[in-house]
Design a protein that fits this description.
GO terms for molecular function: ATP binding; ATP hydrolysis activity; L-isoleucine transmembrane transporter activity; L-phenylalanine transmembrane transporter activity; L-valine transmembrane transporter activity. The longest helix has 12 residues. Helix 4 crosses helix 5 and helix 4 runs parallel beside helix 6. Helix 7 links the parallel strand 7 and strand 8. The protein has two domains: 164 residues, Rossmann fold (3-Layer(aba) Sandwich); 75 residues, no CATH class. The chain is an alpha/beta fold. It starts with a helix and ends in a 7-residue tail after the last helix. It has a six-stranded mixed β-sheet with strand order 6-7-8-3-9-10, sandwiched between helices. Helices cover 33% and strands 23% of the residues.
Length: 262
Amino acid sequence: MTATISERLSSTGTANALELRGVGKMFGALSALADIDMTVRPGERRAVLGSNGAGKTTLFNCVTGDFPPTTGSIRFFGEDITAFPPHERIRRGLRRTYQISLLFSGLSVLDNVYLASCGVSRGRFSFRRPRRDDALMASAENLVRVVHMEDAKDTIVANLSYGQQRQLEIAMALSGAPRFILFDEPAAGLSPTERRDLVEILTGLPGHMGFIIIEHDMDVALRVAESVTMMHNGRIFKEGKPAEIENDPEVQALYLGGGEDG
Protein backbone atom coordinates (compact mmCIF):
# COMPACT_ATOMS: atom_id res chain seq x y z
CA MET A 1 0.00 0.00 0.00
CA THR A 2 1.34 3.45 -0.92
CA ALA A 3 2.23 5.62 2.09
CA THR A 4 0.26 8.83 2.56
CA ILE A 5 1.95 12.22 2.70
CA SER A 6 1.41 12.42 6.47
CA GLU A 7 2.95 8.98 6.95
CA ARG A 8 6.00 9.99 4.96
CA LEU A 9 6.34 13.21 6.95
CA SER A 10 6.13 11.42 10.29
CA SER A 11 8.55 8.66 9.39
CA THR A 12 12.22 9.32 8.68
CA GLY A 13 13.60 5.84 9.33
CA THR A 14 17.35 5.66 8.94
CA ALA A 15 17.46 7.69 5.71
CA ASN A 16 19.52 10.84 5.51
CA ALA A 17 17.62 14.10 5.32
CA LEU A 18 19.35 15.11 2.12
CA GLU A 19 21.63 13.26 -0.30
CA LEU A 20 23.12 14.86 -3.39
CA ARG A 21 25.11 12.65 -5.73
CA GLY A 22 26.99 14.07 -8.72
CA VAL A 23 24.73 17.12 -8.93
CA GLY A 24 25.64 19.58 -11.67
CA LYS A 25 23.89 22.55 -13.23
CA MET A 26 24.62 24.04 -16.63
CA PHE A 27 23.29 27.35 -17.97
CA GLY A 28 24.16 27.05 -21.62
CA ALA A 29 27.93 26.62 -21.72
CA LEU A 30 28.34 27.90 -18.13
CA SER A 31 28.87 25.31 -15.41
CA ALA A 32 27.31 26.74 -12.25
CA LEU A 33 27.61 23.49 -10.26
CA ALA A 34 29.75 20.41 -10.86
CA ASP A 35 29.98 17.00 -9.16
CA ILE A 36 28.31 18.02 -5.89
CA ASP A 37 28.21 15.16 -3.38
CA MET A 38 26.62 16.07 -0.05
CA THR A 39 24.98 14.12 2.75
CA VAL A 40 23.03 15.81 5.55
CA ARG A 41 21.66 13.84 8.50
CA PRO A 42 18.15 14.33 9.94
CA GLY A 43 18.25 17.24 12.39
CA GLU A 44 21.69 18.38 11.22
CA ARG A 45 22.38 22.13 10.99
CA ARG A 46 24.86 22.94 8.23
CA ALA A 47 26.34 26.17 6.89
CA VAL A 48 27.29 26.50 3.23
CA LEU A 49 29.91 29.21 2.82
CA GLY A 50 31.84 30.67 -0.07
CA SER A 51 32.59 33.91 -1.84
CA ASN A 52 30.12 35.43 -4.30
CA GLY A 53 29.78 33.25 -7.37
CA ALA A 54 30.60 30.02 -5.55
CA GLY A 55 27.28 28.41 -6.53
CA LYS A 56 25.54 28.45 -3.17
CA THR A 57 22.17 29.80 -4.29
CA THR A 58 22.24 27.65 -7.42
CA LEU A 59 22.69 24.66 -5.11
CA PHE A 60 19.56 25.69 -3.19
CA ASN A 61 17.64 26.16 -6.44
CA CYS A 62 18.49 22.61 -7.48
CA VAL A 63 17.42 21.17 -4.15
CA THR A 64 14.09 23.01 -4.16
CA GLY A 65 13.39 22.36 -7.84
CA ASP A 66 13.46 26.01 -8.93
CA PHE A 67 16.26 25.02 -11.33
CA PRO A 68 16.35 21.22 -11.68
CA PRO A 69 19.90 19.82 -11.89
CA THR A 70 21.39 19.04 -15.27
CA THR A 71 23.14 15.96 -13.89
CA GLY A 72 23.06 13.87 -10.73
CA SER A 73 20.37 12.94 -8.23
CA ILE A 74 18.77 14.38 -5.09
CA ARG A 75 17.15 12.28 -2.38
CA PHE A 76 15.08 13.70 0.47
CA PHE A 77 14.66 11.32 3.44
CA GLY A 78 15.38 8.40 1.14
CA GLU A 79 13.01 9.42 -1.67
CA ASP A 80 14.38 10.45 -5.05
CA ILE A 81 13.01 13.96 -5.68
CA THR A 82 15.29 14.87 -8.59
CA ALA A 83 12.42 15.26 -11.06
CA PHE A 84 9.80 16.52 -8.60
CA PRO A 85 8.32 20.02 -9.08
CA PRO A 86 8.77 22.46 -6.17
CA HIS A 87 5.26 21.95 -4.73
CA GLU A 88 5.82 18.20 -4.38
CA ARG A 89 9.04 18.85 -2.46
CA ILE A 90 7.16 21.25 -0.20
CA ARG A 91 4.50 18.59 0.45
CA ARG A 92 7.26 16.26 1.65
CA GLY A 93 8.46 18.75 4.25
CA LEU A 94 11.10 20.83 2.45
CA ARG A 95 11.03 24.61 2.92
CA ARG A 96 13.16 27.51 1.74
CA THR A 97 13.66 31.25 2.30
CA TYR A 98 15.07 33.59 -0.34
CA GLN A 99 17.64 36.38 -0.43
CA ILE A 100 14.83 38.81 -1.21
CA SER A 101 11.82 38.41 1.08
CA LEU A 102 8.66 37.20 -0.66
CA LEU A 103 5.79 38.55 1.44
CA PHE A 104 2.25 39.94 1.14
CA SER A 105 3.11 43.56 1.88
CA GLY A 106 -0.49 44.76 2.21
CA LEU A 107 -1.47 42.18 4.84
CA SER A 108 -0.60 41.85 8.51
CA VAL A 109 2.15 39.68 9.96
CA LEU A 110 -0.37 37.17 11.28
CA ASP A 111 -2.25 37.04 7.97
CA ASN A 112 1.00 36.27 6.13
CA VAL A 113 1.80 33.35 8.42
CA TYR A 114 -1.80 32.12 8.29
CA LEU A 115 -1.75 32.09 4.48
CA ALA A 116 1.56 30.23 4.51
CA SER A 117 -0.01 27.64 6.83
CA CYS A 118 -3.02 27.36 4.51
CA GLY A 119 -0.73 26.88 1.53
CA VAL A 120 0.70 23.63 2.90
CA SER A 121 -2.62 22.30 4.23
CA ARG A 122 -5.45 20.31 2.65
CA GLY A 123 -7.79 23.30 2.85
CA ARG A 124 -5.48 25.68 0.99
CA PHE A 125 -8.12 26.56 -1.62
CA SER A 126 -10.82 27.51 0.87
CA PHE A 127 -12.17 31.09 0.77
CA ARG A 128 -13.93 30.90 4.10
CA ARG A 129 -12.91 33.23 6.92
CA PRO A 130 -11.10 31.37 9.73
CA ARG A 131 -13.13 30.65 12.85
CA ARG A 132 -11.89 31.68 16.28
CA ASP A 133 -10.97 28.07 16.99
CA ASP A 134 -9.31 27.55 13.59
CA ALA A 135 -6.32 25.21 14.04
CA LEU A 136 -4.29 26.90 11.31
CA MET A 137 -4.81 30.31 12.90
CA ALA A 138 -3.67 28.90 16.24
CA SER A 139 -0.60 27.49 14.52
CA ALA A 140 0.08 30.87 12.90
CA GLU A 141 -0.16 32.60 16.27
CA ASN A 142 2.36 30.16 17.70
CA LEU A 143 4.81 30.67 14.82
CA VAL A 144 4.61 34.42 15.27
CA ARG A 145 5.70 33.89 18.88
CA VAL A 146 8.51 31.53 17.82
CA VAL A 147 10.12 34.30 15.76
CA HIS A 148 9.58 36.91 18.50
CA MET A 149 6.99 38.96 16.61
CA GLU A 150 3.94 38.68 18.84
CA ASP A 151 3.96 42.45 19.49
CA ALA A 152 3.86 43.11 15.74
CA LYS A 153 1.37 40.44 14.67
CA ASP A 154 -1.25 43.00 13.56
CA THR A 155 1.26 45.27 11.82
CA ILE A 156 1.01 45.62 8.04
CA VAL A 157 4.09 44.04 6.48
CA ALA A 158 4.91 47.16 4.44
CA ASN A 159 5.46 48.97 7.75
CA LEU A 160 7.94 46.45 9.15
CA SER A 161 11.67 47.01 9.32
CA TYR A 162 13.81 44.91 6.99
CA GLY A 163 14.92 42.77 9.92
CA GLN A 164 11.33 42.11 10.94
CA GLN A 165 10.49 41.06 7.40
CA ARG A 166 13.31 38.49 7.53
CA GLN A 167 11.93 37.18 10.83
CA LEU A 168 8.47 36.92 9.27
CA GLU A 169 9.82 34.94 6.34
CA ILE A 170 11.31 32.43 8.78
CA ALA A 171 7.91 32.06 10.46
CA MET A 172 6.32 31.38 7.06
CA ALA A 173 8.99 28.79 6.26
CA LEU A 174 8.14 27.03 9.53
CA SER A 175 4.49 26.61 8.52
CA GLY A 176 3.25 23.05 8.23
CA ALA A 177 5.90 21.44 10.46
CA PRO A 178 8.72 21.13 7.90
CA ARG A 179 11.38 18.46 8.21
CA PHE A 180 14.14 20.50 6.61
CA ILE A 181 14.67 24.18 5.74
CA LEU A 182 17.06 26.02 3.44
CA PHE A 183 17.87 29.54 4.70
CA ASP A 184 19.34 31.80 2.02
CA GLU A 185 21.30 34.64 3.68
CA PRO A 186 18.78 35.38 6.47
CA ALA A 187 21.19 37.83 8.18
CA ALA A 188 21.77 40.01 5.11
CA GLY A 189 21.01 43.65 5.90
CA LEU A 190 20.29 43.05 9.59
CA SER A 191 21.58 45.23 12.42
CA PRO A 192 23.82 43.68 15.12
CA THR A 193 20.83 43.43 17.47
CA GLU A 194 18.69 41.77 14.78
CA ARG A 195 21.49 39.31 14.02
CA ARG A 196 21.65 38.26 17.67
CA ASP A 197 17.89 37.74 17.59
CA LEU A 198 18.24 35.66 14.42
CA VAL A 199 20.84 33.42 16.06
CA GLU A 200 18.48 32.90 19.02
CA ILE A 201 15.60 31.99 16.70
CA LEU A 202 17.64 29.50 14.66
CA THR A 203 19.30 27.82 17.64
CA GLY A 204 15.88 27.57 19.32
CA LEU A 205 14.29 25.53 16.53
CA PRO A 206 13.22 21.96 17.45
CA GLY A 207 16.13 19.54 17.47
CA HIS A 208 14.60 17.28 14.80
CA MET A 209 14.31 20.17 12.33
CA GLY A 210 17.49 20.28 10.30
CA PHE A 211 18.55 23.13 8.07
CA ILE A 212 21.21 24.45 5.72
CA ILE A 213 22.09 28.12 5.95
CA ILE A 214 23.86 30.17 3.30
CA GLU A 215 25.37 33.15 5.01
CA HIS A 216 28.12 35.71 4.33
CA ASP A 217 28.26 36.61 8.02
CA MET A 218 30.56 33.88 9.32
CA ASP A 219 29.86 34.86 12.93
CA VAL A 220 26.16 34.03 12.45
CA ALA A 221 26.77 30.94 10.32
CA LEU A 222 29.33 29.34 12.61
CA ARG A 223 27.23 29.98 15.73
CA VAL A 224 24.16 28.16 14.41
CA ALA A 225 25.83 25.33 12.43
CA GLU A 226 27.40 22.07 13.57
CA SER A 227 29.02 21.36 10.21
CA VAL A 228 30.26 23.52 7.35
CA THR A 229 30.59 23.03 3.60
CA MET A 230 32.87 25.47 1.79
CA MET A 231 32.17 26.03 -1.92
CA HIS A 232 34.30 27.57 -4.68
CA ASN A 233 33.59 27.87 -8.42
CA GLY A 234 30.57 25.58 -8.25
CA ARG A 235 32.35 22.79 -6.40
CA ILE A 236 32.76 21.68 -2.81
CA PHE A 237 36.14 22.93 -1.66
CA LYS A 238 36.27 21.72 1.91
CA GLU A 239 34.04 20.38 4.73
CA GLY A 240 34.47 20.22 8.48
CA LYS A 241 33.37 21.44 11.89
CA PRO A 242 32.94 25.20 12.41
CA ALA A 243 36.20 25.54 14.36
CA GLU A 244 38.14 23.64 11.68
CA ILE A 245 36.78 25.80 8.89
CA GLU A 246 37.21 29.06 10.80
CA ASN A 247 40.89 28.35 11.49
CA ASP A 248 41.78 26.94 8.07
CA PRO A 249 44.22 29.30 6.22
CA GLU A 250 43.00 28.21 2.78
CA VAL A 251 39.39 28.85 3.74
CA GLN A 252 40.23 32.26 5.17
CA ALA A 253 42.03 33.28 1.99
CA LEU A 254 39.28 31.97 -0.25
CA TYR A 255 36.42 33.43 1.77
CA LEU A 256 37.96 36.91 1.71
CA GLY A 257 38.47 36.72 -2.06
CA GLY A 258 36.29 38.42 -4.64
CA GLY A 259 33.95 37.06 -7.24
CA GLU A 260 30.59 37.47 -8.85
CA ASP A 261 27.20 37.02 -7.35
CA GLY A 262 26.08 33.44 -6.73
